[in-house]
């Protein structure tokens, strides 16, 4: 039990640390301990009859967990080979659908469960095909392999919206000297600064790029009212990356720092992690108003 629960325990502790709420943390840890302990105590007192009996259904459970473990492997491998992520997901979904007989006819007199699993297989097959098409189109999000919002954002024959969204919002800097030069230029222009610490392997960084930073309101605020700087910390062993992280004591991406036109840090608006388009737009407005 201890070995199997350790990964879950680490995940739960990470979530609790991120929330920084001691009450929530205590309740979550209590729930985890009860979930682990109550079953063992019940079995120890002779309630083993409550446990399900072994049978053929256990093979299906084994197969399901095997597919989920392959999904975890793809998720971890995507941190190293992000360009292959959606291709791997597509392969897993399509092969799983084939095993669920999505492409085979059901026999006469098939049971309700057989129809149910075939339906699940068809859904996985469609999802896998969409993921494969999305991978070919350059997408990397398995939950949104084809971004229909971006495809339908502009009328046919109009390139205005894609051109707007394809223009980089942030100016990347790779050294302390470049960062200081950008900050000095922002002070001269009397504009506040937002600094984005980004990494290719950072899940929330990529999520911000694919959702929050595509929002028209967010893009308009960043372009009109801020000087947007991005620091790429993908390689943690790089000396310049270490210096840029140490400059403002940033321990990991994604981190978003705000600087007023006078050079004063607006610490109350700084944050780590992900914000939706609505949340980030509100943060930008507050930081701009204080500037």
Summarize this structure as a short list of keywords or feature phrases:
5 strands, globular, 5-stranded mixed beta sheet, 58% helix, 291 residues, 8% strand, alpha/beta
Provide an overview of this structure.
- The protein is α/β, with parallel strands linked by helices.
- The chain has helices at residues 2-19, 22-44, 57-77, 85-99, 112-136, 148-151, 160-166, 176-189, 203-210, 216-225, 239-247, 277-290; strands spanning 171-173, 193-198, 227-232, 255-259, 271-272.
- The longest helix has 25 residues, at 112-136.
- The radius of gyration is 25 Å and the shape is globular.
- The chain is built from twelve helices and five strands.
- Helix 4 (85-99) packs antiparallel against helix 5.
- Helix content is 58%, strand content 8%.
- Strands 1-3-2-4-5 form a five-stranded mixed beta sheet, sandwiched between helices.
| Largest sheet, strands/sense/barrel | 5 strands, mixed
What characteristic shape results from the CA principal axes? globular
What is the CA-CA span between the terminal residues?
54 Å
Number of helices: 12
Helical proportion, percent range: 55-70%
Strand line-up across the major sheet: 1-3-2-4-5
Determine the structural class based on helices, strands and strand pairing. Answer: alpha/beta
Radius of gyration: 25 Å
Catalogue the unreliable spans. Answer: 153-163
Order of helices and strands: HHHHHHHEHEHHEHEEH
Q: What do the pLDDT scores average to?
A: 84
Number-wise, the strands total 5
Strand content: 5-15%
């Amino acid at each position: 039990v201890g070995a199997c629960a350790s990964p879950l325990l680490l995940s739960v502790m990470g979530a609790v640390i991120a929330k920084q709420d001691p009450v929530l943390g205590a309740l979550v840890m209590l729930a985890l301990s009860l979930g682990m302990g109550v079953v063992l105590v019940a079995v120890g007192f002779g309630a083993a009859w409550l446990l399900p009996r072994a049978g053929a259904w256990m093979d299906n459970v084994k197969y399901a967990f095997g597919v989920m473990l392959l999904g975890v492997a793809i998720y971890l491998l995507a941190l190293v080979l992000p360009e292959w992520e959606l291709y791997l997901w597509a392969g897993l979904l399509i092969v799983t659908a084939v095993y669920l007989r999505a492409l085979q006819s059901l026999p006469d007199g098939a049971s309700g469960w057989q129809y149910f699993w075939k339906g699940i297989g068809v859904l996985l097959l469609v999802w896998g095909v969409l993921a494969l098409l999305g991978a070919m189109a350059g997408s990397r999000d398995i939950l949104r392999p084809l971004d229909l919002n971006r495809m339908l954002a502009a009328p046919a024959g109009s390139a205005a919206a894609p051109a707007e969204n394809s223009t980089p919002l942030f100016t990347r800097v790779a050294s302390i000297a470049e960062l200081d030069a950008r900050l000095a230029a922002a002070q001269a222009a009397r504009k506040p600064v937002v600094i984005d610490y980004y990494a290719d392997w950072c899940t929330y960084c990529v999520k911000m790029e694919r959702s929050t930073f595509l929002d028209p309101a967010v893009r308009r605020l960043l372009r009109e009212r801020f000087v947007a700087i991005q620091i790429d910390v993908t390689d943690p062993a790089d000396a310049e990356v270490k210096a840029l992280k140490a400059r403002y004591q940033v321990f990991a991406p994604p981190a978003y720092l705000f600087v007023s036109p006078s050079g004063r840090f607006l610490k109350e608006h700084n944050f780590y992690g992900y914000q939706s388009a609505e949340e980030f737009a509100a943060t930008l407005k507050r930081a701009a108003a204080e500037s």
